[in-house]
Amino acid sequence: MEVFKAAFSEASNSCDRIAIKADGKSYSYGQLTSSALRISKLFLKDDTTNGGQETKKYEGFGSLKGARIGIVAKPSAEFVAGVLGTWFSGGVAVPLALSYPEAELLHVMNDSDISLLLSTEDHSETMKTIAAKSGARFHLIPPVVNSTSETVACNQFQDDSFEAEGKFLDDPALIVYTSGTTGKPKGVVHTHNSINSQVRMLTEAWEYTSADHFLHCLPLHHVHGLFNALFAPLYARSLVEFFAQI
């Protein structure tokens, strides 16, 4: 949960601080976390187990009860918000490769038991088809935009909202698939604890700071692109700039 907490803490303390640059646009921590909260509320409305009722201000931890959420988006603020929103709701994020053919996408969907697929508009038609064939629900990731009302809600997000954090540290947070060189791609499960350990280790070893600026040229369905170039820099409050051509 450390990456998640760092992003929300920065949104509360320095809401306008730039976290991500992509496609010539800058996105603040406040914008990212506001978008993550919007996605969390989207999950609640889609949740048939509670009738779609938002019984708390933000249901947060555990509302997805470990459901696997597929995320399809180019390196962007929307991708980051999709992961944060999934974690905030107690789900497991499964990044899908943009280069996968349909057969590989369906393999990952079925193998990891993805129940809901998040996608940006530019991949929506293909992903709607994939979701339908695998029996998953489909939602568009809302564009990350500056919303004053939701940023205020984000600023009111207090540390006591993480009071149940310890119950979830050993739960799965992320499933990253192998390349499939010698067979079908296999899902590697990372818990919140394992992610925490890796981002802390990387931050200390490379001495990342909030003054650093990372040019991100790596795919986001690989460990190196996720941990070394995204999660660890966000944990250190560094600025991440996605290379526009990836």
UniProtKB/TrEMBL annotation:
**Family, as annotated:** Belongs to the ATP-dependent AMP-binding enzyme family.
**One Pfam family linked to the record:** AMP-binding
* Record InterPro entries: AMP-binding, AMP-binding_CS, AMP-dep_synth/lig_dom, ANL_N_sf
Q: Name it.
A: AT3g16170/MSL1_21
Q: Which organism is it from?
A: Arabidopsis thaliana
Phylogenetic lineage: Eukaryota, Viridiplantae, Streptophyta, Embryophyta, Tracheophyta
PANTHER family on file: ACYL-COA SYNTHETASE (PTHR43201), ACYL-COA SYNTHETASE FAMILY MEMBER 3 (PTHR43201:SF8)
Record's PROSITE patterns? AMP_BINDING
| Domain (AMP-dependent synthetase/ligase) ranges | 62-237
Instruction: Identify the domain of life.
Output: Eukaryota
